[in-house]
Structure prediction request, 533 residues.
Amino acid sequence: MREYDFIIVGTGISGLSFALKAASHGRVAVLTKRSPETSNTAWAQGGISCVADPQDSFDAHIADTVDAGAGLCEEAVVNTIVRSAPAAIEDMIAQGVNFDREANGNFSLGREGGHTQRRILHARDTTGKEISEKLLAAAMREKNVELLDNHFAIDLVTTAKLGLKEENRIVGLYALDEANDKIITLRSDRVILCTGGCGRVYLYTTNPKVATGDGVAMAYRAGATVANMEFIQFHPTCLYHHDLKNFLISEAVRGEGGILIGKDGNEFMAAYDPRGSLAPRDIVAQAIDHEIKRTGGPCVYVDIAHRGKGYIKERFPNIYETCLSIGIDATKQPIPVVPAAHYQCGGVKTDIDGATSIAGLYAVGEVACTGLHGANRLASNSLLEGAVIAARTFEHIMKHYEPAEKTQSYNVPDWISGDAEDVDELVVIYHNWDEIRRLMWDYVSIVRTDKRLKRASTRLQNLRREVQEFYWNFKICPELLELRNLVETASLIVKSAQSRQESRGLHYTLDFPPSNSPIPPQNTLLTRDPVSL
Ligand code: SIN
Prediction:
């Protein structure tokens, strides 16, 4: 059993920001199930929102966030995060992150849907990559930080799981060390989940392969409260191409004048919202879904060609090159796009300091639900949330910090593999994986109905049983762990969607048409009894 002062799971902006703060205060383990460069953060294109223009104000950023959130944002949380943005940006710059600037030295500010002002700091169209590379390089220079790559966190260990009759608190976790093919026990009184979201629960997504809902599933199994999982954000503009799936056409393209057009070449968003192509994402994704169904086209298009070759190549080099590599010249023709699962607005319920309902367990970033996003996240607020909450979580922990010699010591038993066999045919795992992703896309995506949700729930119950059987009978491998988390997360999404008897934000159901809902805005909360674990 290895002991640490802090265990972080995940190497996106939240995990690395926390690690950099914690490094001077104790031994830090940072686990990642693949390589540290593989995270949702690294794929982020648009940028990070921060009030930086004298014409803009914190109040305007707060109002835009709350407006997008459709009645479910926690205003105190929004207020704190928005006002903490400049300090978070300064911290990042101190770690070496470069944001684009104008010739006069001011930040170059982009615009995205739902923002009434330009306030998106960016590094061309690969902002996440810039942040991820610089924070990772800084973390690797810290001698207290031990980076455990290809280590898959399997399950959290809590006092409830150890059968102790005391407040449920975290004592560590089990992880699969892939290189050595063994399951190791890591012990700490502080575990910070920064595992990102669950886009891979859906057939079409802008997320990397790692986004399989691991943190939410693990926390839920350990007895933590999970909130608002029905609010899955579909990005309106994922590239539509058979050879290149999952590639995002950043909202910044529309922020810089890109127009959504249908297959007839006509702009259509004005008929849905006065903000046109720059309306908040829930509205744009629903409108595109409607247009595709109405016209029978497989996709719609975003047209930025009128901005000219020089501008497009300079501002969106990644999008330009990637599209060109598959024969689409964005400087001459519109880019085909479809909506795809993009962001999990709910997650492990936390307070403004990242604390979950289990003592010592924290969740930061997309895995968490702080109340910032409400029923629909405002674009580019997520990297901001990760950076701000990571800093607050660290400060909160340090206020209550007890050195190891003063705290109770727990003996965490080693993992017992029993007589489990190797998975003989991975095809059974891939088949179930495909089935989950397809049924979630068909029944639980942009437009929902009670009947579709019921179907999804019935299928998922069977799949859950099957996956549980694999889990007990076969030796653990990453594919099986991801499948187990995927089915758990999908079930949480469906259960949450079934319990929301209204259309609100990203949860749009034909059985409860959008109107001024008579139901006062409330969170969907799910908690599993830790005693039954
Ligand atoms: C984008 O570049 O469109 C993504 C920004 C975000 O999801 O916040």
Residues 123 and 357 are 36 Å apart (CA to CA). The domain at 426-475+477-510 is CATH 1.20.58.100 (Methane Monooxygenase Hydroxylase; Chain G, domain 1). The pocket of succinic acid is lined by residues 45-46, 248, 250-252, 343, 379-380, 382 (CB under 6 Å). The chain has 14 helices and 20 strands.
